[in-house]
Amino acid sequence: MTWTEKRRVRVSGGEMAFVDAGDPEAPAVVLLSGGFTSSYLWRNLIPLLAPWTRVVAPDLLGSGDSETSDGADLRLGAHATHIRELLDGLGVERFALAGHGHAGGVAQLLALDADVEALVLVDSIAFEAWPAPRMRELRERVDEVDPDAVVVWLEAALEGGTRQGRLRKEDVDEYLRPFRGPDGLERFVRVARSFDGEGLKGLEPRLEALEIPALVLWGEEDTFVDAELAERLGDVLPWSSVALFPGCGHFLLEDAPERVGPILFQWLRTKYLKVEHRHEPDVGPIAVTLGRRPPGEGG
Fold first, then answer.
1. What ranges do the domains of the chain cover?
2. Of 18, 42, 161, 238, which one has the fewest beta carbons inside 10 Å?
3. Residue pair 269/52 in contact by the 8 Å Cβ criterion
4. Does residue 9 contact residue 15 with C-beta atoms inside 8 Å?
5. Taking the model in full, what pTM does it have?
6. How many helices (H) and strands (E) are present in the chain, helices listed first?
């Protein structure tokens, strides 16, 4: 039993599951998550966006409820191709795009080759810094894991990537669900092996030419992808703002949904939908610092 109803479409690499919410004729927002997460990551944002946009939130192949067919390419460039196939099939030509973590790399590749009108990167992999040391170690030892070890590794990753108490048991269970049992072990191994970072190195010149609004959101305590990457992405993307969240880890959408959701929603309304921002009666503004940290401050 999944957390919400999902549609399914076959792309070149297999059958892809995705959430499709809102008016099909409204401007589209595509929310990407991947690796060891799924569209469940965006569950708090989808209801905010659906009254204004068409929200398409896929599970990348190998993740969530999408297939992980033998022989399917699960590297970043292939994921970008699969998402374009999905959107072409849905008749989505122009869209705003958000990507978290591993799927942030997919989002960068898509933004360079598709009609993306606004880009949001949340604790995203980037440049030569992927795979990170923890993921390189996992790739080297992935053939040694068994089903029990998979659960232990994923639970530790979720715990280490969020503030204590932010994830409920049902949240952890949903993230672990696709990776339980013998089939889950095979899926885990295939996803881990795909973490090679191919396609991200040397992207700076192309990203510098990407003249679209961009928002970079990051947990300052991210132990998977260092917060210094937020600064680098902000420097490279010419029309970008950077928001750093103290005390938050890699799973920023889990750590601070009450702050991240409204900020992301209002940014998309202003930069993508071109709707003038107005506060509701008796509701004050949400404070957040957009910009760069002073030189020498650690993340």
1. 7-128+198-271
2. 238
3. yes
4. yes
5. 0.91
6. 11, 8
Partners of residue 218 on adjacent β-strands: 244
Q: Say which residue the tokens 């699960």 belong to.
A: 74
- H or E element at residue 22: none
222: region left, alpha or beta (phi > 0 left; psi from -120 to 50 alpha): beta
Beta strands in the chain, from DSSP E residues, in sequence order: 7-11, 14-21, 28-32, 54-58, 94-100, 115-122, 214-219, 240-245
**Across the 299 residues of the chain, what is the mean pLDDT of every consecutive 10-residue run?**
86 96 97 95 96 97 90 92 97 96 97 94 95 89 92 95 92 96 92 90 94 97 94 96 96 96 96 76 41 41
- Cis-peptide into 285, omega within 30 deg: no
Q: Tell which residue, 89, 123, 90, 86, has the closest CA to residue 104.
A: 123
Amino acid at 187: R
**pLDDT tens profile 88-107:** 999 999 999 999 999 999 99
> In whole angstroms, what is the distance from residue 209 CA to residue 106 CA?
18
In 3D space, the residue among 94, 23, 93, 106 whose CA is nearest the CA of residue 58 turns out to be 106
Provide the 10 A C-beta neighbour count for residue 247: 10
Would you say 210 and 234 are in contact if contact means Cβ atoms under 8 Å apart? no
Its CATH architecture, for the domain 7-128+198-271, is 3-Layer(aba) Sandwich (3.40)
Contact, 211 vs 239, CB < 8 A? yes
3-state helix, strand, coil in the chain (%, to 5): 40, 20, 40
In the prediction, which pLDDT does 292 show? 43
